[in-house]
Design a protein that fits this description.
Blueprint (H helix, E strand, L loop, with lengths): L17 E5 L3 H12 L3 E6 L14 E3 L9 H22 L6 E2 L3 E4 L3 H14 L7 E3 L1 H8 L7 E4 L3 E3 L1 H15 L5 E4 L5 E5 L2 E5 L5 E5 L1 E4 L17 E11 L9 E3 L3 E2 L6 E5 L3 E2 L8 H14 L13 E9 L6 E6 L4 E5 L5 H17 L7 H7 L17
Helix pairs in contact: 1-5, 1-7, 2-7
The structure holds flavin-adenine dinucleotide.
């Protein structure tokens, strides 16, 4: 647990407990829910017509950890994010909201025998509770998946899939229900400029119209964050990803999420979500048959035969742009301490895994409360970390 310095704490000053959140993807919606629970006044702005329209708009994504032998920062942050994420989903359900998600289990298969033995060693070494991580042989994996597999791997029994737009809507419904002041949403409002004047951040349209203003501004704009000069130095790049939607009979196998160089969900409303491609600096928003073909090849490697029988030219799908950081960790914290400007981005391929947890962390920073993150994890996601590194350090990958 981290004791956060009180320099951002606004608790003592009620007039400052008003925030502008720019971006209503999974990041912005998670933060709105956390701040509303603490009684903050919130103006939430997005260019789209509703929440979860950007990278957070897929039919299904995977909420699961990524273990490693040395239990490194990435592993600990994905484990904490997964546990916190599923707890949040359960809490939303108890409150009467209904995010589409199912902790059906996630099977992460090894690509070959050498990787399988490493995965076994990781599971043996970490010795986590079995619902968090267990090694399974190929025959056990096949029984879980309900179809043939080439190798064994990791079984995350407590993990599963989430439909991000429905989670965004549930988070905002909860935020609206808890907010002391009404949650103000400004959809269909593209922010062209942000200006700081007389102690308040102002978000304005291209024709200079003021959308909203508040003393604290959180940039949760996904890949759009670097358009603003105040955030332009953040090393966030856009990584295009396409998922393919595969027609599937209800209850047909696999009935769990399966991963191996990609992922495939169970049938959700008659469609499996299979993906995803990953291409840095490819701004093409169109769904491409060549990318469907790539997803089908990945699926076939994962589950022999599962990717055959589909025509890439006929498949549905969706393209999104991941806000990727060089070290594959999110970028969360102050980018201008004095003027109360914060970043909540850099989620790359794991925004579902991290957003809910780091939104609680950022809320603790703003409130001057102890954070759920250990000091080293809080520092690992702080935007200031990049100022300490030589230019060009790190790499971008999936
Ligand atoms: C194909 C694909 C598959 C993925 N699979 C998974 C997965 O299985 N598991 C997982 O954890 N993660 C997955 N991810 C990653 C995850 O979806 C992202 O990390 C996450 O959605 C990022 O959320 P965000 O809120 O930061 O950004 P976004 O969801 O993109 O939200 C940003 C919002 O800001 C708004 N905005 C931007 N600029 C402006 C502006 N100037 N004015 C007004 N509004 C603005 C946009 O309209 C948008 O709604 C996947 C991503 C893709 C693309």
């Amino acid at each position: 647990m981290t004791i956060v310095p009180a320099r951002h704490a606004a608790a003592a000053d009620e007039t400052r407990r008003h925030v502008l959140i720019l971006g209503a993807g999974i990041a912005g919606c998670s933060l709105a829910e956390r701040l509303a629970a603490r009684g903050w006044q919130i103006d939430l702005i997005d260019a789209a017509d509703g929440p979860g329209a950007g990278a957070s708009g897929n039919h299904a994504g995977v909420l699961r950890p990524l273990p490693s032998l040395d239990d490194n920062r990435m592993s600990r942050l994905t484990r904490a994010g997964t546990l916190y994420g599923w707890q949040t989903i359960e809490r939303l359900r108890r409150e009467g909201f209904a995010p589409r998600a199912e902790a059906c289990g996630v099977l992460h298969l090894a690509r070959d025998a050498a990787q399988e033995s490493k995965m076994k060693k990781v599971a043996d070494t970490l010795a986590l509770p079995p619902e968090q991580l267990r090694y399974v042989s190929a025959s056990e994996a096949a029984a879980i998946a309900g179809c043939a597999v080439r190798n064994g791997g990791w079984w995350f029994a407590g993990s599963g899939w989430v439909q991000p737009p429905s989670l965004c809507r549930a988070l905002l419904a909860s935020a609206g229900a808890h907010a002391r002041a009404p949650l103000r949403t400004h959809f269909g409002a593209h922010v062209e400029r942000i200006d700081f004047a007389t102690g308040r951040w102002q978000a304005c349209t291209a024709d200079g119209r003021l959308i909203a203003a508040a003393p604290t501004l959180i940039l949760a704009a996904g890949t759009g964050i670097t358009q603003f000069p105040a955030a332009a130095r953040l090393p966030i790049v856009s990584a295009r990803g396409q998922v393919s939607l595969l027609p599937a009979a209800p209850d047909s196998p696999p009935r769990v999420v399966v991963c191996c160089g990609g992922y495939v969900s169970p049938a959700i409303d008659g469609l499996r979500c299979a993906g995803a491609t990953f291409a840095v600096d490819d701004p093409d928003p169109s769904v491409r048959p060549t990318d469907h073909a790539e997803n089908l090849r990945t699926l076939d490697k994962m589950l022999p035969g599962a990717g055959t029988g589909f025509d890439p030219a006929q498949l549905g799908g969706r393209v999104g742009f991941r806000p990727a950081s060089p070290d594959r960790l999110p970028i969360v914290g102050a980018i201008d301490h004095a003027r109360r400007l914060f970043a909540l981005s850099g989620f790359g391929a794991r925004g579902l895994v991290w957003s809910m947890l780091v939104a609680e962390h950022l809320t603790c920073v703003l409130e001057g409360e102890p954070s759920p993150l250990t000091q080293d994890l809080a520092e690992a996601i702080d935007p200031e970390r990049f100022a300490l590194r030589p230019p060009g350090a790190g790499r971008i990958d999936a």
